[in-house]
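Open question from group meeting: does this chain pack into something compact, or does most of it stay loose? Before anyone orders reagents, we agreed to write out a predicted structure and look at it together. Recording both the input and the output here so the notebook holds the full record.
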Amino acid sequence: MVQVPILSGIYAKTTADFARSFPVNLAPIAESGDGTGTGISKGYLKVAPGLRKVTSTVAIDRGGYVFNGRHMRVIGPMLYQVADDGVMTLVGSVGALGQGKPVTFAQSFDRLGIASDGALWYYKDDALTKVTDPDLGPVLSMAWQDGYFITTDGTSLIVTELNDPTSVDPLKYGSSEADPDPVTGILSLRGQVYALNRYTIEVFINGGTTGFPFARSRGGQIPKGCVGSAAFTPFVETFAFCGSGRNESPAIYLAGAGQGIRISPRGLDDALALLPEDKLAAVELEARNGAGMTELLVHLPNETWVYHWTASQQFDLPVWSRLAGGADVSSAYPARHFVFYGNEWWCGGADAIGVLDEQEPTFFGKSYGFQFDTPLVYNGRAGAIVHDLELVTLAGRVALEAFVDMSYTDDGVTWSQKRTASLGGVGDRDKRPCWRRGGRIRRWRGYRFSGLVSGPAAFARLEAQLEPLNG
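Structure tokens returned:
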């Protein structure tokens, strides 16, 4: 038997190039310990959790935050408080111009700041108010640090007054001037303020001056920038962002000491490079950290990529997967803006809010599929005869019988007809999906496995019984 890896695959493009493929709606899991993993394999693929719909909404979800034990969400133009059972209590309007654009939250000691539709709003003592000081200007992004709400209008860095967060002194404007590029976002992390510009990132610390209170830390400047106001997020004690330097194509980076560390695979870089600037500015990044796994979600307009930091540390290489909607994994992943509340991960979509659920076989009531490829099986010039394939799984955890389809490619572009095997139903834990009489490999062959999610499942390894030929 030959073990064929399944954590990522290889296919051939029509442009005479090899490319990696990544599991879709499957999370790569790396078992820590003595290095042997499960004993069956060092890592395995686990079906991504479903999205259990809790309640319907009349508009698109724009962001969520847990403030003083309350689950707050902006849905369309309105701010709501969401109860444990999904009942939504209207708080008030936070503008109505850019209903589909994500909002930014930042918390001070006594209030929650919300940057929405170019304005700054405060939620305090069950009341919602708007900052009306004309010196504030348009609010594109916002953070809080050392008693100040810090905003940007794309050109300047603006702080509210210490003793009055609703007031702005125009003599206390700051600037990010290392490069004449616009400011796209503001981030507060580890006591520092980051001005994320389109092609550079500058670091500021509180200097206690009488004017603009934050002084530039020249040694912390990063020669990469960020594409949009939602294209960055705190992640593993630093932050991740989507951006580039000047005259570079965009990628996903982790912020280091004065540098951006690229973590994105070529496939994601290619997808980002195809986006026009307005679509690129709409890219969203968010992080999930729980159940022993730390993940970075990169939402493009039509697809979502996931960086699995925990598995990457175990395998000592970047581990990625993709999330997609639909039975044929051709639709966009419908969930955004995850927050951990009441021991569950809550999220929103175009017309619903819900929670991640390992037992749920749908995304907000709609079926979704899974798919993964293998690297190319190659026996030099000799080729081989495939007697059988066996997919080693954790099955029998679903109420209805589940199935998996296998197809193969001998050129990396076209695929054979699908052959279906059963994953078993409830209690069929010893089910062994196999495909026999696999024909002859003349040059090389890649395999693809896909199916419709019907509940929890995992795939540990693929074994192939091959008879090498002599050429």
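Observations to bring back to the group:
The two ends are 20 Å apart (CA to CA).
Residues 98 and 117 are 6 Å apart (CA to CA).
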